[in-house]
Amino acid sequence: MTEDDLLKRYRDFLKDSIRLSIDFSQTDQSRGIPPPPIEKPYAPDAKRIDLVRPDAWQEVGSVDVARAIGERQSHRRFRDEPLTLEEVAFLLWATQGVRQVVNPAVALRTVPSAGARHALETYLCVLNVAGLEAGIYRYLPLEHQLLLEFGESGLPEKIVAATLGQRFIARAPATFVWTAVPYRMEWRYGLAAHKVILLDAGHVCQNLYLACAAIGAGTCAVAAYHQERMDALVGVDGEEEFVIYLAPVGKV
Q: What is the architecture of the domain spanning 3-251?
């Protein structure tokens, strides 16, 4: 297969996914199969960290939305200072926070998602956040908590290797890593699911850019990485869940 053939295939994927969902409408939802959970389960004895909720934020800054949009840019240089746990809580809420649980299968969040399916999970590679040990964490949006997945030695070197030598990422206090759990979207949309998962990732990362402006921080969206190494870094299987996007965050 030539490069031109591959380009046409990918273009057709972007154009045809909605048509395919109509042609092949026998999704698991239409078959009456119950929806998958909207959040990955966790062990009852897992270490969880309560996060400050929006109505209790005291020190998180603010900025005019028009100014945040006008000044939005990617930052690859960060100051040598930690993020606070309150700032991290704000960024997590801004990117995947739950505003309302409609029913056990549907939650409305701070970002749009096709059919409110929200196929993404948020992991944090924490290197320098006040009050947190270095390691890999997962955001629990329903509980507004951080779950410690595991501590990890040599995280800076490992994330540089997993992102193809992008050393600026290791200088960020925290890196947001978004994975896709595709069946959450496939359950409703079948073959069209994969296009809208990518659209959802864009919504989430743009909210991170704008929320960073409110706390004097910056970020840089990263889509260049070694798939297997990034999956291993956050501890996902690479099949039913896999990394699709990441963004380091630090003060600027």
A: 3-Layer(aba) Sandwich (3.40)
- pLDDT (tens digit per residue) in 21-78: 555 567 899 999 999 999 999 999 999 999 998 777 666 777 888 888 888 899 999 9
CA distances from 232 to 14, 154, 159, 161, 178 (A): 28, 14, 10, 12, 13
Domain ranges of the chain: 3-251
pTM, two decimals, is 0.93
In one-letter notation, the amino acid at residue 242 is F
Beta strands 48-50 and 145-150 are: antiparallel
DSSP per-residue letters across 19-57: HHHHHT---TTTTTPPPPPSS----TTS-EEE---GGG-
